[in-house]
Amino acid sequence: MTTRPVGVFDSGIGGLSVLRALRAELPHQPFVYVADSGQAPYGERDTGHVVARSQALTRHLRKAHDIQTLVVACNTATAAAIHLLRDEHPDLPIVGLEPALKPAALASHNGRVGVLATRGTLASVKFKALHDSVANQATFVLRACDGLADAIERQDLPRIEALAREHVSALGICGLAAGAIDTVVLGCTHYPLIEPLLRSLLGPDVLLLESGAPVARQTRRVLPELAQIGVPVLAWASTGPPEDLQRAVQRWLGLQARVEALRV
Ligand code: DGL
Q: Please, what is the angle between helix 75-88 and helix 47-65, to 10°?
């Protein structure tokens, strides 16, 4: 019997940073990845739109691929919709992402943490509850990185660089000096894709935290069927131009992908 796939979706290519961690943790597991690139970015859209897209993609993944588990590889969609997805699909294990504020509070020596995320994530009820739960453990400097996920999605290098510079400098002084931000949370799955650039702007001493590896471990814990041998089948679909996802998969995962053009 073949193992059913794990479904993974994001507003676009950002979830590839999560899929990279998932494949490292679960090397034999089949995955189906959906990029909602035709509707990206989510981070500056209203919540209703993100909820409707998350519901449509989840229904599609169940119906067309009979997924055994869903990973919402998007902080914005998790914040907006994960509780509604769980209500609608009580029989489906669903793993979401949240910005790594708790690990950051533990790791920061200066007690000053920068958080880079989308406007939608930072404005959400879910993020507010998370922030409130750790607010007494560190000072969090929040930055809504308008435009950055979109620039990464389009691979617009001059814009990526200009926006990354603007948003990082808005955090204030970063480094190990007393009072400086020494830990930065990458609270959007697109941002790990430009980690070298962020690292060059933040300096070598700042700790960067993302959620891919913990999410992969959590996925392993909840998986009903774990594939333990064989080369897994990977399936790809995008609501945007298939060649964009194909290029991104080649670039970040080193894989040749045949991408289905999806209309949902
Ligand atoms: N990658 C997504 C996240 O983790 C959203 C980016 C966007 O579409 O704005 O928040």
A: 60
